[in-house]
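Before the break, one more example. Copy the sequence into your notebook; we will annotate it together after we see the structure.
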Amino acid sequence: MKLLISFLLSVSLPAVLYSGQQKGDITIHFEDLRNIQGGIGVLLFTSPKGFPGNPENAYINYYSTLSAPNHTVKFYELDYGTYAVSAFHDENSNKKLDTNWLGLPREGVGVSLNALRPFGSPRFRDAAFELNSSSATLNIGINY
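Here is what the structure looks like once it is written out:
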């Protein structure tokens, strides 16, 4: 009986002591920027709520100025799981996506898996990808 208890403790104790989530990094390469004016806004979502344009519902809200027509953003130490990215080229540096009177973007936009739709906003389920290794790399085209 002591041998059985010893064995069970040796097998289960490490699992109890290590309860940390596995983590990975996401690298995003933005391509096709038509100029280097302004910056790029990036929203990383973990659920459909607020996707693609509500920063209050984003897991990460990131903004960076541009210095080259191709730009790379990296998010570190993220829990494994499902994510989707939306981004915009903020050419006038006002840190928001400008739209016309119909609500259509006046600045370049892109989403993960390049899942833009001809009509309507992109859907989370179409742009979602799994982070299930130490790193994931996305190439997102910016469409004007």
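The longest strand covers residues 81-90. The two ends are 71 Å apart (CA to CA). Try to locate both features in your own notes.
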